[in-house]
Amino acid sequence: MKTPKRVAIVHAFFVLFALALVARAAKVQVVEGKDWSARARRQHFFAGALSAPRGEILDASGNTLVESREMTRVAVALPEVRDTAFVLRALHHARVDADAVRAAIAHRRRWIDLPGLYTASDVASISKLNGIHLTPVLQRVYPNSGGIKRIVGSLDGRGNPLDGLELALDTLLRGDSGKVRLARDKDGRPLDSPDGWTDQPKAGSTVVLTINNTLQDICERELSIAVDSLRADGGDIVVMNPHTGEILALASNRVGRTAFSNTAVTEPFEPGSTLKPFVAAALLEKGRARPTDVVDTHNGTLELDGRVITDMHKSKSLSLADVIRFSSNIGIVEFGQRLTPRQKYETFRDLGFGMPLGVPLPAEASGTLREPKQWSKQTSASILMGYEIAVTPLQLVTAYAAIANGGELLEPHLVKEVRSTDGKVLYRAKTRSVRRVMSGEVARTVQQMLLAVVREGTATKADLATFEVAGKSGTARRTSQNAGYVAGNYTASFVGLFPGNDPQYVVMVKLDNPKGAHYAGGDIAAPVTQIVLRAALAARDAALDREDLAASEKTAVAQSGRNDAEGPDRPAPDSYDPNKNVTNRDASEGTASYVVELPTSLKSAPLPIAPRAVPDVRGLSVREAVRALHHAGFRVRLLAASSVGTLPAAGTIAAPGTLVQLSRPLE
């Protein structure tokens, strides 16, 4: 047999090797091709998540309160840096913290995340340097206002909501995250993939609040001043539109506390005498009393069920209207005996006490309203005076709005609209009546009682020179850690309707444990309300209808017949100094005031009959300003202030004879 040649063996070996290689290649490419392709994609490409921008939060006028801003985080990979000194200089010129890089070099770290966030323009000069890695991130930008922060809430470092509207409306604000495909080079560094975005992120919806930012600032400023001046433990101010249920301002202040909770909705309190108008409304609604009905008030002292009830305004007898006007505890208890315990309970329950109102703020308190079967022997009288019941400031304002709007309890709302990124309105709040709690006639009667409280009752310090104010003050003793009522510890409050004859605002001011000679709600909470209203009148945009206000002004005859010594312009009690620690206060808040009467020239033009605008006197001397206002048909009162200005503000439509307060520079 012929032996194969060596060359033939080698050829045969190569043929077999080629066949094996072809077979293996066929298996890899045909049989296992999909698996290897997937493995290659996993090694060279990866999908990265990109957070969607959270939606903006706007106030009722469209001003931005909260927005998301794209920022950049800077990191340095030291093994990739070719010239360390050059990179350090570049970081310094870009105002990026280079000290962290020096510290990392000293500790031989390979990767450094530099502290802080930077705008794209700040780091553009270092974006192309080897070893510099820029990562886009979204930063939530909040206002400086503490009150707004308590309303909108905040996020943690990972973008998760912690409290406020950020938490309650997270599903609306969060948006939909996107995904991006990235390629890696041989060293694992990410490169832009030709495929680009696979899923575009969708920004969150825009939320428009009912809050008026100007009015919110006014309330926060005046509350801070009042708490500081009175050395109070804290306080709250709530303003609501009684015809829509819109919450226009929500300010809270607590000394020594940095919590973000809005105490106006999270901390109930015993409201004291501010509940008396609702007892009067129940009596009128059920036909158990008339405003002129009189009861014995026992000269200001009554012993009932083992307790002594006293009145500050001592009288032998009072009508129902006078009981509200002078805030008689004995009178309201005597009248309240005409109601059964169940009727008393249902009156307060129907007003929304004892249950949450459903505003989109976390930790809203429901308050306390116990059923009659849980009452003690003294509860039937205590609850009429505003004790053994706890309400939040927002609940109390919502209840008073029913008096202001003719008897309808409205659902309060904080969110006005929700809009998509393209501007389409996804939700618009509508005025919703929960129930009718009193007839329109009863509401008007109670409103007249509240007008008398401010005109000549316990809250005259809330009155304004040009507009009627209605309201009720309250002074309630406070408890301390289940130790019972503490002597000298009070809650001073006032709820006002402005203007009193056709309300556009319901304003509540509450001050906790004020210290000093004055602690009654009519003495310290009512003046704060007056200052808030005066500042709102002077503001350009404070959610007021100026045309309706012009129709609600007091007549010139009523103003000229008024005794200025009893008017609202007298200074607040010495325990509350509205000018303390404040410079450049609004001109309407001066304390020195007097009337300047100028002689009328026989040749001057007759006063116009129709209402007209208040002239702009800025830039004029005091004498020229007084002459211009007088020539326009207005009476003038001078106030000491830092600059020249008017209240009502320039451009306000007012009737002839209206008293215009003109600020003059301090001497």
Polypeptide structure, described:
There is one protein chain. Helix 8 (213-230) packs antiparallel against helix 17 (521-538), helix 10 (276-285) packs antiparallel against helix 16 and helix 15 (393-405) crosses helix 16. This protein folds into 4 domains: 6-31; 48-209, Penicillin-binding protein 2a (Domain 2), CATH 3.90.1310; 213-288 and 339-582, DD-peptidase/beta-lactamase superfamily (Beta-lactamase); 593-665, 2-Layer Sandwich (Trypsin Inhibitor V, Chain A), CATH 3.30.10.20. It is elongated, with a radius of gyration of 35 Å. Mean pLDDT is 80; it is low at 556-609. The protein has 20 helices and 29 strands. By secondary structure, it is an alpha+beta fold.
Task: Say how many strands there are.
Answer: 29
Uncertain residue ranges:
556-609
Task: Using the CA coordinates, give the radius of gyration.
Answer: 35 Å
* Apparent shape: elongated
Helix content: 25-40%
Secondary-structure blueprint:
Blueprint: H1 6-31, H2 33-44, E1 45-50, E2 57-58, E3 64-77, H3 84-93, H4 99-106, E4 111-113, E5 132-141, H5 146-152, E6 154-155, E7 161-163, H6 164-168, H7 170-173, E8 178-184, E9 190-199, E10 206-209, H8 213-230, E11 234-240, E12 247-254, H9 263-266, H10 276-285, E13 294-296, E14 301-304, E15 307-310, E16 317-319, H11 320-325, H12 329-336, H13 341-350, H14 379-382, H15 393-405, E17 408-410, E18 415-419, E19 425-428, E20 433-436, H16 440-456, E21 470-479, E22 485-498, E23 505-512, H17 521-538, H18 546-552, H19 556-560, E24 593-595, E25 612-613, H20 622-631, E26 635-641, E27 645-647, E28 653-654, E29 659-665
Parallel strand pairs: 2-10, 26-29
Antiparallel strand pairs: 1-8, 2-3, 3-4, 3-5, 6-7, 8-9, 10-18, 11-12, 11-23, 13-16, 14-15, 17-20, 18-19, 21-22, 22-23, 24-26, 25-28, 27-29
